[in-house]
Structures are given as C-alpha cells and as structure tokens.
What does this fold into?
Amino acid sequence: MNVPAWLWAVTMIGIIGVILLDLVIVDRRPHPFGPKEATRWVIFYVGLAALFAVFIGWYFGIAYSGEFIAGYLTEYSLSVDNLFVFLVIMTSFAVPAAYQHRVLLVGIVIALILRGILIVVGAELIARFSGIFYLFGAFLLFTAWKVWLAKEDAEPDPGGNGLVRFVARRFPTSTEFNGTRLTAIIAGHRMLTPMALVMLAIGTTDLLFALDSIPAVFGITSEAYIVFTANAFALMGLRQLFFLLKGLLGSLQHLGKGLAIILGFIGVKLILQAIHETTTLPVPVIPVWISLAVIVTVLAVTIIWSYVSARSTKEI
It folds into this structure.
C-alpha cells in the first residue's frame, strides 16, 4: 500500500477541519449535550467513517477497505470501555455538564497526537523487525487475560494518573472552574484551573488504553495509514458516543468479557502471523474477513448478553 504524501496531507487537513467544525458548531455556545444531539453527531461520524471506507476501497482496493472497517470497529469497541473511565474522571473533577464536551474534545485531540506518535513508532518497529508481532501478540494475550479477570464493578482511580499529579504539585492550581479557561488569575497569581487538569487527565489516560488498542489494530493491518485513520475516526466520534451512552454505561456489564475475547483472538492472530513470517512452519494465516466476522459477532453477543442480564436484574 503506497500512500502518497498529498493524501497524508489531505487526510490530516480533513481531520483538523472536522474537529474545528465540531468546535465551532457545538462549543461556540457551551451547553449540556443531550441524547438527541449526541445521536445526530454519532450518525454523522459513523457516516464519515463509512464514506472513508468506500474511498479506501475505491483508491486502494476492497481488501484495504476491509482492514479499515475491522480496525475501526476494534478501536470503537475498545473505546466504549474507555468511556466509563472518562465518566469517572469528569465526575471526580466535578466538571459542569455544559463544559464536558469541551473537555472531551481537547482531551481526545491530545490523545490523537500521542497515539500518532505511538503508531509511527509501531510501524517503524514492524518494518525493521517482523518478530515484533510475537511481542505484540503476547502482550495482547496478557491484556485479554487481565481484562477477563477484572471485576466488572471495579472503579478506576482517576487520581492514579502520575502526570496529572506531577503538574498539580509543580504548578499552582485552583479548585474552581472559570468557564472553559485553562488558567485564571486568582489573588494576583495565575493558576491552572481544574479544566486544564481534567483535559490532561483524559488525554494521557487514553494513552494507556492505546497501548492495548494500537497493537490490536496492527494485528489486523500493518499499514500505518489505516491504523492512524481507524484511530482518528474512532476517537473523533468518541465524544458524542460518551453522551449517547452516558446513562447506559452501567448496563454494558459484560463488555469487558467481549473485549477480552477480541484482544485474545487478535493476539493469537498476531502470533500465527509472526510464525508464518519468521519460520517455515505450515501455520494458518487468519484473513481479514474472518477477523471482521469475529469482531462483529463478539460485539453483538456481548451487547445482547448485557441487555438480557440488565433486564433480568431489574425484574428481580
């Protein structure tokens, strides 16, 4: 897959343009983000991803389009699990409802930049050392095991973000929000507001999730362009998905099990691919269409299982 420089440039300009459009349309008048508005934006971003998949298929071929769709679905499904952590972070910082969309927007822009750096590093490692798939595969299997055993009602600790603690200790910070300002002059001194800290917490906490999700997408495709765009489209639609599912996050109680199965499957796929590329052993190579079918099936079963379990709990 040969991606010309102009396409990279157009893609980056397009992503920046969509983010700025979102910022101008939604955040010019800060307000609580309701389910109806969130639904419209989720449809918009999913539609953009679908159109981009069509473009990939037209320009590069249908096989690459399938890789993008599988990578996008993987990133989006893993991102749903991240939403609960975002909810805990914003609750712990007591972010006013009117400013939550701005927090997620800036936090996810930070996350996109950091993920871009990881993707470049990952692509370079793969290009230089095909055996890196052994490491990626083992890491995903270990992560799948941890996710499977994790308690479904365990709450993350938003104060565990070391960078946020470092910034709060080294720089004067206030305890009250000042609109969407990142700094404010209080008692004659300029201080960071909680808005700055919560944006930093969202952006850098997402980086921890990227350590799982990026190797997972590299297990589907080794093309850096597809990995980056799959991440970008998933992250851009994540803010609206947060507000759409905000009241339902607790109902997705079995999502972790489904994500563990997906991560485990991709981990096995990576190890098989590594064996195929580094040895002469006759091992099977899992095609993209099987990966896509497994991801869609596991997500569907997980959502139905969670829905049935939630209804059963309410009826008791």
